[in-house]
Structures are given as C-alpha cells and as structure tokens.
Fold:
Amino acid sequence: MKNDIIVVRGGGDVATGVIQKLHRTGFRVLVLEIEKPTAIRRTVAVSSCIYTNEYKVEDIIAVKCDTELDIYLAWENNKVPVVVDPEGEFVNIFKPKYIIDAIIAKKNIDFDKFNAFGKIALGPGFEAGKDADIVIETNRGHNLGRLIFKGFAAENTGSPGNISGRTLERVIYSEFEGKIKHIKKIGDIVTENETIATINGKEVKSKLSGVLRGLIYDGFVVTKGLKIADVDPRKEEIDNCFTISDKARAVGGNTLEAVLILENRKKDRG
Structure:
C-alpha cells in the first residue's frame, strides 16, 4: 500500500525534525533534495547523505536513493530514503497521501504543481487554505509551531533567531565567490575574528566567540551572499551541534499534529 507515504521537500535541519517525527510514528517518508544541498547545520540534516550516501541523525538513518527499488529497500530496512529530485518527479511515481514543503525558502517554489490528499507548508510564502491546507509558523517566539488554517505565517524578518542576545552576528554569509576550504570544524570553539575557513584563499572570520555549530560542506563552491556558517555564543552547548534543535522538534511535532488533523477530517467526511 502507498497511502501511508509522505513526501517531504527538503532535508535541512528543520526538515529533519519533521522527518524524525513522521518516521518514528510509522509513516514512510520520502525526502526530495537538490543535487548539492546547502544546509550549514549538516550534522543534523538528513540531506548530508547526498554527499556521504548514508547519514545518521540521532536515531534515524537517511540513505541516498536513485531508483524506486532503492526507495522500497530503504523503507524495508527502516531507513529514510533521500533522492535528488528538485522537480518532484517521484511525487508522480508514488502519489503520496501528504506532501510537506520544508525547504524553508521563505517563498513558494512550485508547490502549487503538486497534488495530494493533504498539503502542509512550513514558514512564510504560503497561504493556508490556498497554497496548502495548513501552514506552520517557523519564526522563533511565542507562535513557533502554530498551525495556521487561514492566512500566512509571519513574514521573513531577515534576522536570525536571538540566542543569548545575539542575532545578525551569529550567521556568516559569504563575502566572496569561490570554493570554501575549512579551517575549523563543526563543534569547535572559536573566538571573535578567528578564521574559520577560506574562500579561494580569502579568510572567513567569526563575528563572535562561541561554538561553531554550522558550516557548509568543505569544497562547496559558494556564491556571494550565501549563508555558510553559524556560531552559537553559548560555548557550553557543544552537544547541540549534533542533536536536532528545539525549533526543529517543535515544528516537527506540530507538523505531525497537522497530518493527524487532516487524517481526522477524512474520517469526518465519512
């Protein structure tokens, strides 16, 4: 039977919180990714398997798949299949009951072209009741994880979430174009103005002291303005670099709630 399949667009760190909840509760999850994922919190992103073929995040193992058979084998082995399929061709093959947009692109990227019994979208750029059945708030704060049945999530603030009073300086965007080479690794303690990487030989420096919890893949060819690193000012929180975040867990739990609400709507219809 295929009616327990849920397709999730995107395998980044927030999407992984969603994927974990759905996988744990018995759904067969299929993740669609791009050829070269740009997740900087890659230690907690199932998209990392695109580079390594298999990758474990907490209690779930994600595996890169190329064919329909690969996907079925992954499910049989209790793994999460991830395919390079930005156009969503596998949606037509598997005809999932639900499709979740977890790209967190802050805009609707062709979500309208997909058909499913239930559609759920994370973050801004989607109108609940039109683009998706339910939209889920991803902005940190009082409304994080709130289910929206009509209207929109909060607009993109353009500012990273506040951690210990630090916002903009937490996230590092590339000032250059070229291939990145790591000097530091995720989990390292860094100091303000310390070099964490180079791009074509030009230094990339941390804007604050803390623990490096996100860094785009070594050797990735970055563009100017691309988010490439994330520093947490709480030096004692090294373990957080390797576990799913509070935000991802909250959004994941509420996505599961959204799926169950849509399931009950079907029962009510009779």
